[in-house]
Amino acid sequence: MSLPAKSTSPAVILTGDRPTGPLHLGHYVGSLRNRVTYQHDYKQYIMLADSQALTDNMDDTGKVHRNVVEVALDYLAVGIDPTKSTILIQSQIPELAELTFYYLNLVTVARLERNPTVKAEIVLRGFERDIPAGFLTYPASQAADITAFKAALVPVGEDQIPMIEQTNEIVRRFNRIANQDILVECKALVPEIGRLPGIDGKAKMSKSLGNTINLGASAAEITAAVKKVYTDPLHLRVEDPGHLEGNVAFIYLDAFDPDQAALAEMKAHYVRGGLGDSIVKKRLELVLQEMLAPIRARREELAKDRGYIMQVLKDGTAAAREVAARTADEVKAALGLSYF
Ligand code: TRP
């Protein structure tokens, strides 16, 4: 992934997560560890997309409420620094809803129905024809999130690229109507190692598939998960040659083992034959325990001070709201919606 050259004022980054569960290693690889580095060089907004989470969770609003704090804890525990990044809660910035309302007139129902991300998610959720209107139209709300902060860069997984394309369509249509470049087009930043498989070998680590290792996992949970990690089903005896493709133990070691030279030797030995899965898993367990122990400790420490977490969220949201409100004013003025 190559980042654009820096200009005098740092480019704005907007990223976010739907707070529907605690974050896991898949999030860590796909976004969290990048955010920790971005925050030094960019103006980074990180949004807890609680309103968006409600578009398919109206039957369990408590889950979304609880997970706002859980995800905030994950952010801080991995090293997102609230003095460098602005963490905000989507629902507490009414201007985001307001912008969504206007942007809905810049997309057609047919275009929303064709959005590949929305299409795939409708299948995944089994909505069939009973699609909540708010769910179908969430690309407009995502466009509001991105444009409110005039974000130039949006780090997302590959599956979210259609959201960026649709956002830019809205931006172009709006600027044409406004006859000036009020909104800013954005670029998706897709990480190279975007997707971590689940411990069961399925292509994606995801809470709904029950194949995750959470960032706050206890030592015992990590041990249990490593035992279940999918390896090579054809590697029955130690002396058999093993395969690396689709071998989750090695995929995780590729992603997390700090000693990549030793890992290369281990892989060669495995492929040659003579190296048992138990040795590989022992290494994986050590690597994961060492990586997650400080994150867990920090998470537990922070969780004791809920007042601090709420203050971080309140301050971040207030700062973000000022920016979003300025954009909303410009948008409304350009639409002739300013009177006094
Ligand atoms: N749709 C994103 C997800 O499901 C969350 C999100 C909401 C988001 N608004 C955003 C991501 C704006 C990037 C930019 O993960």
UniProtKB/TrEMBL annotation:
Gene Ontology molecular-function annotations: ATP binding; tryptophan-tRNA ligase activity
Reaction(s) the record says it catalyses: tRNA(Trp) + L-tryptophan + ATP = L-tryptophyl-tRNA(Trp) + AMP + diphosphate + H(+)
BP term (GO), one: tryptophanyl-tRNA aminoacylation
PROSITE patterns: AA_TRNA_LIGASE_I
One Pfam family of this chain: tRNA-synt_1b
Domain of life assignment: Bacteria
Keywords assigned by UniProt, alphabetized: Aminoacyl-tRNA synthetase, ATP-binding, Ligase, Nucleotide-binding, Protein biosynthesis
UniProt GO cellular component terms: cytosol
Enzyme class: ligase
UniProt EC number: 6.1.1.2
Similarity comment: family membership: Belongs to the class-I aminoacyl-tRNA synthetase family.
Protein name as catalogued: Tryptophan--tRNA ligase
Species of the source: Rugamonas brunnea
